[in-house]
Write a structure and sequence with these properties.
This is non-specific serine/threonine protein kinase. By secondary structure, this protein is of the alpha+beta class. The protein contains 17 helices and 20 strands.
């Protein structure tokens, strides 16, 4: 599709590539930052919204707040640009599949994937609610499933006040139909309605008078599996006071129900299933836009120029969060092998090395100078000292762990991290952590508890992630490499454990992996982006099959990241 400028104006400093979607809130385009070569999504606000001064005032405030939000279940807002010719939001470009597309292509997800989706959505809502930002119109097109099966929430705060019910009628709480403002309670209602749709294949209510159905129809909890009916009953309660008091409270009830019904491994299984469904949906054609809702309600407000309910996933800029779905693009293992974008009409994605294919280093040095490559990476990351990351450690000997979030590089000090992480045993539940210097801050309810970095439990897990997923982990491997080859943009090599173990920081982790797997060398593979910054790191201690440990780390959205100690 050829790119067309919006009202003749584009945001300066970016090269527009192609249109990604459009809707009532405006048009979304894929663009490249001319300075950093980073891909971004830009949402150009529709003229009707720009003319609404009350909306614009609220949107500016929400954008300022959400631009400071760092959460792995929420996409990033980079900048809000206003000019006499127009207004636009510059936001994170996210490869993924909208939940709307997954449901259209695959139907019901099953209980484990549905629980995983709801858990990720609630985490994103909890992060936004904590800074007093309400989403307003949660719907399947605003939930993005990335290549690791994480549910990431998009499209915050772009519904004009009083129009939320018309924007997403199948998911709109009863009080929205009466003209009440969007609240934490309406967000939880909508999230539950999506959860119901994942379980059954259809929203809880459908008909010609959506307002009456949401207000008066019985909650159809009997349509879902027995262990999950109480969650549906709580979230779809007609009275907002009867719903969970917060997203965090609802998440606690979800985890209790999931563990009781499906065991402690429910989350890993659910995320794996959600990953499969998203990958399969990405191979299907983009579903057509839903027809305009025929809903009615005596007190509903009809908004001029509003789009049909549940439009494309990119329809609304998230005043804070906007992540844009590339039709069919799924990352995860794909980027490591292919290095580029994956179209929804392309062949099935090649498995990542961590899953099946194992890059084997060549015996000869291969002609690539490891020290020069390491220096190039350091120079490149100095210009953009931070990124979003996804980390996974698998294999034997108590290794399984996962994390995602953002980090910022600090001159002369360890990098700072903001992440959601989980491990095994007592750390199997997901926890939010901020790592700065020698302190790890763990979130407990609404409070943060500081602990020494490297302590037992979650502090030890957070330090492991920092050592294994940092830029210094990449350069440590390169500087110790005894062989390094390059093919198709992928660097593959080996490094002796004896040399790695002498390196402060990440060397300790490599030594632990080697002891557990009884090997003398670490095999690794690395892919860089167009600016010589890491986009994927894969390493293995041990044989391809048998007693081994594998760490896979993905990097994206490089730029300046300010990680601050929580209060």
């Amino acid at each position: 599709m050829a790119f067309t400028v919006v009202d003749g104006w584009t945001v300066p400093g970016f090269t527009q590539e192609r249109e990604l979607g459009d809707g009532a809130a405006g048009r979304v385009v894929l663009a490249v930052d001319d300075m950093t070569s980073t891909k971004v999504a830009i949402k150009y606000l529709a003229g009707a919204l720009r003319a609404d001064e009350a909306f614009m005032a609220r949107f500016r405030a929400s954008a300022r707040t959400l631009s400071q939000l760092e959460d792995p279940n929420v996409a990033d807002l980079y900048d809000f640009v206003e000019a006499p010719e127009g207004a636009a939001v510059v936001m994170q470009y996210v490869d993924g599949v909208a939940l709307r597309r997954v449901l259209a292509a695959q139907g019901p997800t099953g209980p484990l994937a549905a629980l995983s989706m709801l858990g990720g959505t609630l985490l994103g809502l909890a992060a936004a609610h904590a800074v007093e930002v309400v989403h307003g119109a949660v719907r399947p097109s605003a939930v993005l499933v990335d290549g690791d099966g994480n549910a990431r929430l998009t499209d915050f705060a772009t519904a004009a006040s009083g129009t939320e019910a018309q924007l997403a009628p199948a998911y709109a709480a009863p009080e929205l139909w009466d003209g009440s403002p969007a609240t934490v309670a309406t967000d939880l209602y909508a999230a539950t309605a999506i959860f119901f749709e994942c379980l059954t294949g259809h929203p809880p209510y459908a008909g010609r008078n959506m307002a009456r159905l949401h207000r008066e129809a019985p909650i159809p909890a009997e349509e879902v599996p027995g262990p999950l009916r109480e969650l549906i009953g709580q979230g779809l309660a007609k009275d907002p006071e009867s719903r969970p008091k917060s997203a965090a409270d609802y998440l606690g009830a979800l985890e209790e129900a999931a563990v009781s019904a499906y065991g402690p491994s429910w989350e890993a299984q659910g995320r794996g299933r959600l990953t499969e469904l998203a990958a399969q949906a990405a191979l299907q054609p983009e579903p057509p836009k839903p027809k305009p809702s025929r809903s009615s309600g005596r007190n509903q407000v009809i908004a001029t120029g509003q789009a049909p309910a549940s439009g494309p996933s990119n329809r609304r800029i998230a005043a804070a969060i906007a992540a844009v779905v590339v039709a069919g693009a799924v990352v995860g293992g794909i980027v490591f092998v292919k290095g580029g974008e994956s179209s929804g009409d392309a062949a099935p994605p090649t498995p990542s090395p961590a899953q099946s294919s194992t890059p084997q280093p060549s015996a000869p040095p291969g002609g690539v100078a490891p020290a020069q490559l390491a220096a190039r990476i350091v120079q490149a990351t100095d210009q953009a000292p931070g990124a979003r990351f996804s980390y996974r450690r698998t294999g034997c000997c108590g290794a399984p762990s996962a994390a995602q979030g953002t980090f910022g590089l600090v001159k002369g000090a360890e990098p700072a991290y903001s992440m959601t992480l989980s491990g095994s045993g007592k750390t199997r539940k997901r926890a939010q952590a901020v790592v700065i210097g020698d302190r790890v801050y763990l979130r407990a309810g609404k409070k943060w508890r500081p602990s020494p970095a490297g302590g037992r439990g979650y502090p030890a897990l957070a330090e492991q992630v920092r050592r294994g997923g940092s830029v210094s982990a990449v350069t440590t491997l390169l500087n110790a490499a005894t062989s390094l080859t390059e093919s198709g943009g992928v660097y593959k090599g080996e490094a002796p454990v004896a040399a790695l173990a002498r390196t402060p920081g990440s060397g300790t982790l490599y030594a632990e992996m080697a002891r557990a797997t009884r090997v003398q060398e670490i095999s690794f593979a690395l892919k860089l982006d167009g600016s010589s910054r890491p986009s994927k790191l894969w390493l293995r201690a041990g044989p391809a099959k048998g007693r081994n440990q594998i760490i896979t780390t993905s990097y994206s959205a490089w730029g300046r990241r300010a990680i601050k100690a929580p209060r």
